[in-house]
Each structure stands twice: as structure tokens, then as C-alpha cells.
Amino acid sequence: MNVRAILTNIVSFVTPKMHATRQKAVIDCVHSLASGSAATVTSIGRGINSNAYEKHNIKRADRLLSNRHLLREQPLIYGAVCRLFCTAKHPTISIDWSDLDECKRHFLLRAALSFDGRAITLYEEVHPLSTKEKPATHKLFLRRLSLLLPASCKPVIVTDAGFKTPWFRQIEALGWYFVGRVRKPNFYTIDNGAHWQCISWLYAKASLQPKQYQAQIARNTPFPCMLTLYKKKSQGRHSLNADGSIKRSKTSKSNARANSDPWLLASNLPLKHSHSKQVVAIYRQRMQIEESFRDMKSTQFGLGFEQSGSLKLHRISLLLLLSNLASLVLILLGVGLTITNQQRRFQANSYRDKRVLSLQTLGLRAMAKG
Asked: Disordered: where is this region (predicted)?
């Protein structure tokens, strides 16, 4: 498999109008990332396959992250990715926030398309703490995303409990669908506002069989929606200390209580047969965006963005763009290996009934083999 040619074709497809020299620099940096370099300027530069000294390759990567032309072309690249993958009328798009550093200075807001176990990033923005999780930030993000998606596209937006009722209203204003989790503190009514109760009253009714309620949430500004209640079977997982004992810290206990709560999902999807099961199946796909964050940040499992020390928003934004292009290339390489039934060559076991490795991991192994 000529992975270099495949990578060049993919990057060229999403950057068709880019200056040839700048496009070559992007391809070389993406190739460096996909070949195992961490998402830092120095590591990317050292990984560039060139006759130049490493010092000059590092400078080349550094200049690319400060390139104003590439920064202006960034929305065009994301738009090309959206047109390439959002061909369905109702694609499932997960949106979530993620911290970009331990100091909590920069935060990532990402929209990602659910795709065979790994989400493909469609659009993302970097924000400081002052604009994180603000309604105005969300509204502008949705507006920009709507401009990138095909005109005929009417996506289903999936979010966790961090996105509240104003978010649902903004999605409805665009004519889109939403599936979002509702958590305490929140109130609901199923009798047109005659009686309001805390949503914890519903938790006792949760079971493996999803239940539906035509309801309103947010007592101060009632919002009509369909509520789906579901409690999945306990996985029996425990967070352990180094000696194997169960963690009993305040944070661990808080997380355990949160994970034991059932899913209460608000949606505006059209009612039809097996509607509740459809809502649960759609929300299950939200975990893909969490895995995409890990694939981007983790040095052990992904592209090593956690090592990056960049402080300027525009440099972080372009470094994320290169990381996303590398991730896209790796996922598509993984798809190619799966289609040609070569994925089992990279397994450490002999399972034949399922794909053991993620698409991105398969792509990384393909790049390592050249």
C-alpha cells in the first residue's frame, strides 16, 4: 500500500485551491504526524522526510503554524471535509467541549460526524476561558457550522448534559434535530405545567426498556420536547488504585454516582415506531467524540497533542487542523485495510468475527509499515 500517495491525494482533495508550496508543507507535516510524530512543532519538524537539516525542518513546521494564509483557508478545508462526508440528509453530529491544557487556559469546541466507531472532525474552534460555554459562543458556532454543511443537510445534533435548554432552542431555530442528556438540577412536567417535579422522580422508573414521555423541561421558561428514559445494564467497572483497591476519593465517588444515573434524553425527532430505541442508539454514538479527543491528545494512544506547549490561539488552531487532517488520513487508511480484509494482519490475537483495532490505530500501523 503506497500510503504516501494516498495521504497526498486525501490532503490535496480537501485543499484544492491552496498555493502549491503551502500545500506541500501541509502534506509533509501531516505525513510526519501520521507517521508517529507528536503534535508539537519540534516533533513534527523532526519527522519531516527531507534532505534538509532537522533544524530547518523544525523552522518549516514553525512557520506553517504562523501562516496567515493557512489560517484564512481553514474554514475552506473544514467545508471540503463536510461536503465529502455529510452526504446523508440526517447525519449524526456530536458536539462537545474539551480542555486543551491542564492549566485550563484554552478549550476546544468540536463538531464530529459519527463514523464506524471513530468520529471524523467536521469543524472546531479554540476558545479562552472567557468565552467557554457561553450562549453567544454556541450560537455563533452553530451558525458557522450551518454555513459549512451542504444546504440539504438537516443533522441530528448529539450533546451531553453540559448543553442546556438554550442550546436546544438554538438548534430548533436552525430547523435541525437534537438529542441531548438532561441531568439534575432540572424540572419536568407531563401535564402541560400543572405539576412540576424534579427529574430524579423519573429515575426510579428507568429500566432496560426505554420509556417515552411527552413533556416540558425548564420550569422558568418551559421547553416542549420528548423525553426518553433508559438505564443500561451495569458494566461492573471500578476505578482502582495502584494496589488494586477501589478508589474512594471524593472525585471518584462523585463520578461513580454520576455514571450510575439513568439516561434521560431530550429530543425533537419525529415520532415513529421504535422512536425511543432510536434515540438511545443515537446517543450511544456520542462516545465517539470522546474517543476522538483521546486520539488527538494521548501520547500513548494517539497524536500526542498533550505535549504541545503552544499558547497563541491561532497556532493552536492550525496545529489542531494538521492533527485533524492526519487523523482523517489514518481513519481512511484503516477503512481501506478493512475493505481489503487486511486488518487481521495487525491483530495480536486471532479474532475473525470483529475488527479488534480502531480505524485510526490500523492507519498508524499501516503508516509504520510504509
From this structure: 238-258
- How would you classify the pairing of strands 187-189 and 211-217? antiparallel
Which single residue is written with the C-alpha cell 478508589?
247
CB-based contacts of 7, cutoff 8 Å, min separation 6: 27, 30, 31, 34, 329
C-alpha dihedral, 69 to 72 to 73 to 76, nearest 10°: -170
- In eight-state DSSP terms, residue 132 is T
Tell me which residues of the chain have a pLDDT lower than 70. Answer: 1, 273
| Cα separation, 308 vs 40, whole angstroms | 5
Task: Dump pLDDT digits (tens) for 194-203.
Answer: 899 999 899 8
Amino acid 66: pLDDT: 96
CA torsion angle 321 324 329 335 (round to 10): -160
pLDDT of residue 234: 78
Kindly state the cell numbers that stand for 165: 435548554
Distance CA 57, CA 48 (A): 7
pLDDT at 1: 59
Burial class (CB in 10 A: 0-12, 13-18, 19+), 275: middle
Q: What residues pair up with 290 in beta bridges, in sequence order?
A: none
State the Cα–Cα distance between residues 96 and 331, nearest whole angstrom. Answer: 20
Beta strands in the chain (DSSP E): 92-99, 106-113, 120-128, 156-159, 177-181, 187-189, 197-198, 211-217, 223-230, 263-267
| Contact between 227 and 218 (Cβ < 8 Å) | no
Dist CA 121 CA 265 (whole Å): 24
Residue 272: predicted pLDDT: 80
